[in-house]
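Lipase family protein, pasting as requested.
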Amino acid sequence: MRKLSIAAVLAVAAATALLQQPLAQAAPAAGGFESVQPLSAAATLPGSVNSQRFFYGTTTVGDAPTTASAAVYFPPGAPPAGGWPVIAWAHGTVGIGDDCAYSVAGPAAVERDWSYLGTWLKQGYAIVAADYAGLGSPGEHPYLDGRVEAHNVVDAVRAASSHYGTLARKWVVVGQSQGAGAAVSTARYATAFGPGLDYRGAVATGTPAYIEDVLTLLGPGVPPIKLSGDTTAYALYILNGLRTAHPELNIASYLTPEGRYWVDRARTECLGPLGTALTAQKVIGGNLFSRPLADIPDFHGLLHNYLGLPETGYDRPLFMGQGLLDTDVITPETLRFAAVLTANRQPLTFRTYPTDHSGTVLASQPDSIPFVRNLFA
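C-alpha cells follow.
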C-alpha cells in the first residue's frame, strides 16, 4: 500500500473534520418564523403576558436574506374573536451593536416607552417589536435604511401572525424617532411587502425628515456648533450605516484618526453611554472629518435613496406628531415633509405639540389612540 505524505494526511483530516461540522442554517424565507427564546426582564413589557423573543426571516442591504429578532407582547385575558389586533412597534435609536437590541436590552427610555406601549396594551392590542436587521442578529445594522427597516417590520408581523394563533392579521405600525422613519417607510411599502396581511395605517412621532440635506454639509469646515451627545451619536451611527450599505464609498478615508476612533466605537456602543462619552469629551463634529462628504459623487442622491422618506404612494392613513421644541430631529424639515405630503394629497393627519423629542411620544397619544381605533373599526 502506498504511504500518504504528512501533508496529504493533514489535508484528509481537515476535510473529514469539515464534513463532520453541522452545516450553517440558512435564513428562513422572508416572513418565515424560525425560533423562540425567553425575553430578558429588561426587555419584557410590564403588564404583558406570554411575551417572547423570536427570530424570523427577512432581508437586509441589497435584499440579501438574513435572520432578525423581535419581541412579542400579549395583553392579559382572552383574545377577541379573530385574535388580537397588532401594533408593530418601530423603536427609536438604541445603538447599532447587538447588545443594544430592543429585545435584548429593552428600551433606552424605559419609563417613557413602557408607559407608551403599556397604554396600547391596555387598549387591547398585541405588540410586535422588530429589532431591525443586524441588531441582535447576524450582520451589521444599516442604520436608517428605510426600505430595510420596512421589510424588517413587515416580516416580523408576518412571522408572528403565522406562528401565534391568537394574533389577528390586521395591523398598524407605530414608531418614534428612528422608528418614526421606519414607520413612515413601512407605511409606504406595507401593502406590497406584506401579502396576506391586513395593513390599516401608521403613527409616527419625532420623524427625521430630509436628513440628506444636512449630512451633505458635513466635513472639516463644519462650525463648532454645540450639539448634544446624542445628536453626534446619531451622525456616527449613520456613518456606520453607510459603511454597511455602501462599502465602496470607503467612508474611513473621509475621517480623521479621531473620526475613525469614534465611528468604530459607535459600532458597538449603545446610545446612552456613547452620548454621555461624546458630551464629556466635548467632541466637535468638524474634527471628525479629513475631507468633505460632499466630495462623494452625487452624495445627496445616494443619501436620499438610502434614508430619504417617500413623498408619495401611501395607501392607508398616516398620523404624524411633532414636538415644536424637538432638537433631536430637524423640526423645520419635519414640518416641510408634512407640507409636501399634504401638497401631494397623501392621507396625512398632522399634529404638533409644545414639547421636545421625547415628550411628543406620550403627548401625542390622546390623538393617536382614537386615530388607531378608527383604523380598526
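Note for the archive: The chain has a mean pLDDT of 92.
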